[in-house]
Amino acid sequence: MLRIHAVSAPRNGSTIIDGAIAQLIEGVGDERFSTSLFKATHDSIGCIHIGAFAFDRHNRPALMFAENAGPSLVARQAGERYVKRYWKMDPVRNCRLGGLPAQHMIETTADDISYADYRRDCYTAINIRARISVCEIRSYGMIRMNFYREADFRSAETSAIANSVSLLMPLLWRHGRKYFEPLQRWRESNFEALLGKLAPTLSQREREVCALMAAGLTSERIALKLGISLNTVLTYRKRAYFRLQISSQNDLLRLMLQ
To answer: Is residue 89 within a helix (H) or strand (E), and if so which, with residue range?
Structure first.
């Protein structure tokens, strides 16, 4: 039976990447990242496969990476089959993304899969029993990181995965940025154009700041992107909120999606 958990960060306690954070940071952008992550998860919670998927704004997946022990490419082959044939059969896909928190964790077993070919090709034929998926949704896409085991995850192992989310997800977004940069640029330009129609009294900088906020950038990242100080970003945001008669980023998104 599917179990869905909201993820609260940060958490105290052990993580699945204790001792591997330096290697992960150094490996972002190349194959060292996925091999270091697999070793950490194999050693800490006994994962036999891992796989990460980038989902576009239409919820279509691309395989970012997949790793398993040994010289065979079992995990990659299973991930490629999933992207090509089976992603629409995944019971996780039936979860309404609009009703889920931005960060969430979903526990799945082979028994949850009603499609025999999918269950065989991606689970039973390669000795997979259980999967935990850690997901983060942003305005321009989603990353789902899957951890696979031969047996059900114990509660301590589930907690260790949850404890890792606040550290792991930013690294995954950075590692997979090539999948999302075109989508993010599309979103930013469309948001800015939409703001120009919704609120013609906003200044150009106010529109730029609001568009980047709607696209999921933090105030710090907006400051770096626009080459201005953080205080200046906050000033533009305050002015824009006053003109739009809103008080939060959620209000801004609701206004733009009406």
So the answer is: none
What distance in Å separates the CA atoms of residue 171 and residue 21, rounded to the nearest whole number? 10
Return d(Cα 173, Cα 180) in angstroms, integer: 8
Closest CA to 253 of 200, 221, 210, 193: 210
Q: pTM score, two decimals?
A: 0.70
Say which residues have a Cβ less than 8 Å from residue 220's Cβ, sequence separation at least 6.
230
Please write the tens of the pLDDT for every residue from 151-196: 999 999 999 999 999 889 889 998 888 877 654 555 566 778 878 8
Tokens standing for residue 137: 């949704």
Q: How far apart are the first and last CA of the chain?
A: 35
Structure tokens at 168: 């792991």
Q: Among residues 192, 144, 148, which one has the least CA distance to residue 172?
A: 144
Is 40 in contact with 17 (CB distance < 8 Å)? yes
Alpha-helical regions (H) of the chain: 21-27, 31-45, 74-81, 116-122, 155-175, 177-198, 204-214, 219-226, 230-244, 249-256
Residue 49 and residue 69 in contact, taking contact as beta carbons nearer than 8 Å = no
